[in-house]
Design goal:
With 299 residues, the chain is of the alpha/beta class. The protein has helices spanning 43-50, 72-75, 93-103, 109-119, 132-144, 162-179, 190-196, 214-219, 272-281; strands spanning 3-14, 17-28, 32-36, 58-63, 67-68, 78-81, 150-154, 182-186, 199-204, 207-213, 221-227, 239-244, 248-254, 266-268, 287-288. Strand 1 and strand 2 form a beta hairpin.
């Protein structure tokens, strides 16, 4: 399978500050990718490099099976929705369709009009008068009407209420399933990501901390629960994060269901949100997924 996004020692510097550095990864086609990390971790920088809004300071990045990021061949197959929903507030929804039809070499006007009709978004209403959920759906419709192979979403859920978030993601997943589109989604809303993502990229301090298929990552981690007084005995185990109470300790460790459980301890599977939070709390920890599925993760 071709790589939708592939980077090699990628870095981006603003002045003397590195926003992203030594980023090496490969994400194959067909994935819904969750990109997470604290503010300032480099998420937006990586997405901007992927869609050609920024140029690398070091290394390289290709998209859509080897096309240089930002090239005409790449841009024809990528749609991008930024966090601020770049819509002209004084233009109507119909004006936005007309504008995008004339600015893009490929734009499915019929699809866009039909979709806005299904959503009950008036074509004659100015975008500034639409609700936050309607503005998000309009921006998403404009992106999907380009029939992209790769849809890049940078914090599109940040300002939406729970129902609008659910509807937005339902649209994304329906389009991905119908058209075979790959999706990269940056978000802090872990509950939504856990529901839809099958690939995870976690950035910390401008570097890739974790990358791999969600199924593989979850299968290679366990939560150990046991006496707090004995937690120190297992420091030699690959512990990602330890949480100790007065009597009990909870250790998230890199282990599989087949690995032996220490006497007096219990092992439980972990969810994506639990896994992400553990790594966010321990920025120095790094995890590798199956080498057959992920080429490299920078430690």
């Amino acid at each position: 399978m071709e790589a939708m996004i592939e980077t090699s020692c990628l870095g981006k510097r603003y002045g003397s500050t590195w926003a992203l550095r030594e980023c090496t990864l490969a994400v194959q086609a067909g994935h819904v990718v969750a990109m997470v990390g604290p503010n300032g971790a480099g998420k937006t920088t990586l997405l901007n490099l992927a869609v050609g809004l920024a140029m690398p300071s070091a290394g390289g990045i290709t998209v859509l099976g080897g096309r240089p990021a930002g090239s005409m061949a790449a841009l024809d197959g990528i749609a991008f929705v930024a966090q601020d929903m770049p819509l002209y507030k004084n233009l109507s929804a119909a004006d936005m369709l007309h504008l995008n039809r004339n600015l893009n070499r490929r734009f499915d006007q019929g699809y866009a009009q039909a979709r806005l009709g299904e959503l009950g978004i008036p074509l004659k209403r100015k975008t500034g008068k639409l609700s936050g959920g309607q503005q998000a759906q309009l921006a998403l419709t404009l992106a999907l009407a380009r029939r992209p192979r790769l849809l890049v979403l940078d914090e599109p859920l940040a300002n939406l209420d729970p129902l609008a978030r659910h509807d937005f993601m339902a649209t994304v997943m329906t389009a991905a399933a119908a058209d075979g589109m790959s999706v990269v989604l940056s978000s802090h809303v872990l509950a939504e990501l856990e529901r839809v993502a099958d690939y995870l990229i976690l950035l910390s301090h401008g570097r890739v901390q974790v990358a791999g298929e969600v199924e593989d990552l979850l299968a290679s981690h366990r939560m150990l629960t046991g006496p707090a007084a004995e937690a120190g005995k297992y420091d030699e185990r690959p512990v990602v994060h330890a949480r100790r109470a007065e009597a009990m300790a909870h250790l998230l460790v890199r282990a599989t269901a087949a690995d032996a459980v220490p006497p007096g301890w219990e092992a439980h599977p972990v969810g994506l949100e639990e896994l992400v939070l553990a790594y966010l709390r321990q920025p120095s920890a790094a995890a590798l997924s199956s080498p057959a599925r992920t080429q490299e993760v920078t430690k």
